[in-house]
Amino acid sequence: MESMCSTIRNAHNKFKKSVLWIGGDLNLPNINWTSNSIDGHQNLHDINATLIETIHEFNLDQAVNCPTRQEKTLDIFLSNRPSLINRPVRSKLVKRKIYLSKKANIDNLRASATNFKHDFFRKFGNQSGTSAQEMWDYIKSSLLHILDTKVPSKLASTSYSQPWIDTKARKSNRHADIARYQKPKKTSNLACLLVYKSALLN
């Protein structure tokens, strides 16, 4: 921390009229960025105090005003010209349906598509006065019905995911949580306990 603060001081002294931009993940959960005070003892007091003193010394402002990991703000973006920062408002994600095509029964889909084809020709095959829009509406509604009834789906989460958590890591965490909290508590089965211990080691 001393090295980083010294670099900030040298940059300020060398370019006194320049705008300072300082960003990164400092992993300092004990700093309350609303009041620029120390709240907790997870890290050494001197580390937090050194950064806060540097912020006050050069009149820096923390632009990140929302939690970035659980309830803590670990990412920073400091500047001595906060008026130049456009602070976007992160809107809440809307739940959307995700179709799980890999879990769909292909034979059922083909049978439903074949039935739809026959129904379509029975309905519109001998009608010369039917508009293209009417036929398109029927096709669209029928295909969406097949999709909703024959393809499994799930709702997307409304929380923002972290870019460093990929699908593999997410599945691994979910597997470990299940093994760690659910099975061992519900049963004394030796196999479940072995899975629990294996998940802890992996």
UniProtKB/TrEMBL annotation:
InterPro entries: Endo/exonu/phosph_ase_sf. It comes from the Eukaryota. PANTHER family: REVERSE TRANSCRIPTASE DOMAIN-CONTAINING PROTEIN (PTHR33395:SF22), TRANSCRIPTASE, PUTATIVE-RELATED-RELATED (PTHR33395). This is Endonuclease/exonuclease/phosphatase domain-containing protein. It comes from Mya arenaria.
